[in-house]
Design brief:
Layout (H helix, E strand, L loop, with lengths): L1 E4 L21 E4 L6 E6 L2 E6 H5 L5 H8 L6 E4 L2 E4 L6 H10 L37 H10 L11 H26 L4 E7 L6 E5 L4 H11 L6 H19 L3 E8 L4 E8 L6 H6 L6 H6 L3
Parallel strand pairs: 3-6
Antiparallel strand pairs: 1-2, 3-4, 5-6, 7-8, 7-10, 9-10
Helix pairs in contact: 5-6, 5-7
């Protein structure tokens, strides 16, 4: 079975393998080829993906080249491996664009220590983890986006916007840590009030008397006493949806208390959300049966 790729017209490639923006002739593509797994060796860093992932964006460099199936355009090292002499670490974000349609890059994660910050994949009632992706500066990423001809706006934004975006992300990560510490203590519900007058957030943990947990949570949210109200005012609903997407067990309730002019945030993970059998299997108790049946 075959189908047409309506890329249209003809084009040319310079000595670096960059396509011109002329139209391309229609090409016949085997549907089975779209599921072909290929390896891209980018500057010595190897990535594996499907041909269809790249051809989903036919107007980009890789989309056009793999749709045309002209192997002369590549430095092919093996049957399904192709070498591209570009920045291998920055290509992580290029490939993620092909997969998600988004540039999953944040400047502040590449300009500061993130060893204590949870990532988007940190939470499912498990401990926070960190990324091992080497830092990529804005200028390098912008050059790679231009080279691969991705259909996105410039990654350059104003300094105020970048600073504010970093603070919003930091606030969201702080709430992730709160959820993690809350669930690690099997606590059910926490209420945090962020005041418009920029006073310190007020923390209340239901049915839990641990001073250590209270102090831990208070230290996490304390840096956001001056901005927490504004962040929740502008992005509160979206933040709630984002966190509940990461942690389906999470219950989120945000309301504005007009009389006192603050935002009251309640987060809850009910006791029934815990899979105690699964927890047991992830602890040293998983070996208890073997210990009991051991001959010694």
């Amino acid at each position: 079975m075959r189908e047409r790729n309506n890329a249209g017209g003809s084009g040319s490639y310079d000595s670096n393998g960059i396509t011109s923006r002329n139209d391309y002739n229609e090409n016949i593509i085997d549907v089975a080829d779209l599921d072909e797994r290929i390896v891209l060796n980018v500057g010595g860093v190897k990535y594996e993906t499907y041909r269809s992932t790249l051809t989903a964006y036919p107007d980009t460099l890789l989309g056009t080249m793999f749709a045309k199936r002209d192997k002369a355009l590549f430095q092919q090292t093996n049957d399904n491996e192709y070498f591209i002499d570009r920045n291998g670490h920055a290509f992580y974000y290029i490939l993620e664009f092909y997969r998600t349609g988004k540039v999953l890059w944040r400047e502040h994660t590449h300009t500061s220590d993130t060893s204590s910050s949870p990532t988007s994949s940190s939470l499912s009632l498990t401990s926070p983890i960190t990324t091992s992706i080497p830092p990529v500066i804005r200028q390098i990423l912008a050059e790679e986006i231009h080279y691969f001809q991705l259909p996105i706006k410039s990654v350059y934004t104003s300094l105020p916007n970048r600073a504010a975006a970093a603070k919003v992300d930091s606030f969201i990560h702080a709430l992730q840590f709160v959820i993690y510490h809350l669930t690690s203590e099997f606590a059910a519900q926490i209420q945090i009030d962020f005041r418009r007058n920029k006073h310190q957030p007020h923390v209340k943990i239901e049915n839990h008397s641990s001073t250590k947990l209270y102090n831990c949570v208070h230290e996490i949210v304390r840096p956001y006493g001056a901005v927490g109200y504004k962040i929740l005012e502008k992005f509160g609903t979206e933040i709630g949806s984002y966190l509940m997407g990461l942690v389906p067990e999470l219950k989120w309730k945000l309301k504005h208390v007009d009389n006192y002019n603050w935002y009251s945030l309640v987060m809850c993970v009910e006791d029934g959300a815990f899979d105690f059998d699964g927890i047991r299997e992830s602890t040293c108790l998983a070996d208890s049966i073997n210990v009991k049946t051991a001959p010694w």
